[in-house]
Amino acid sequence: MMGSKARISPRLALAAVAVIALTLSRPAFAQEPKLDCADAYTQSDLNRCAYQDYEAADAELNRVYAQAVAAMTEMDEALTGTGLEGAVKALRAAQRAWIPFRDAACESEGFMARGGTMEPMVVAGCMTTLTKQRIDDLKQLAEGLGN
Questions:
Q1: pLDDT 10s digits, 113-139
Q2: Is residue 6 in some structural domain?
Q3: Which Gene3D superfamilies does UniProt cross-reference here (predicted)?
Q4: Does residue 1 fall inside a structural domain?
Q5: Which has the closest alpha carbon to 84: 95, 96, 93, 72?
Q6: Which of 70, 87, 111, 139 lies most in the core, judged by the most C-beta atoms within 10 Å?
Q7: Per residue in 49-90, pLDDT tens?
Q8: Is residue 4 part of a domain?
Q9: 21 within domain boundaries
């Protein structure tokens, strides 16, 4: 029908107005409320807290790994020309092997709760534990090079 105006049904118009009103009433960037992990009790909150613990441990791991690389670099520089260099290369190879080990070990541990709501918490808890152990190992490596 050329020249006729398209008609919108009242039902569709009402739905469009409702969607626009809801969209405009929400903040542009809704933020999740701050989670108090000391008082977490729902499984969802426990999962989030476990993951936050892992993220903190991972950030610390990256910081300590950089320190270990710096210590190994100093060792390699001190050994330049002796044929004994390779501390940084060995550390990088070890770290590259450790990451998939940690991930696979924690995936395996997650099977204790496979398919359940607490599986993410079990996996994240394992990741945190192994990451903290690796942090201790790297600290000992970096500090031990000074002896």
A1: 999 999 999 999 999 999 999 999 999
A2: no
A3: 1.20.1270.180
A4: no
A5: 72
A6: 87
A7: 999 999 999 999 999 999 999 999 999 999 999 999 999 999
A8: no
A9: no
Helix axes 43-78, 119-144, angle to 10 degrees: 20
**Residue 46 neighbours by CB under 8 Å, 6+ apart:** 40, 118, 121
- The CB-side HSE value for 141 (13 A sphere, CA atoms) comes to 25
Residues 112, 113, 115, 121, CA torsion sign: negative
| CA–centroid distance for 114 within its chain | 20
Q: Which two tokens stand for residue 62?
A: 């990256």
Q: Which of 64, 84, 65, 68 has its CA nearest to residue 76?
A: 84
Nearest to 142 by CA among 68, 61, 66: 68
Residues 8, 65: Cα–Cα separation, whole Å: 63
Q: How many domains does the chain have?
A: 1
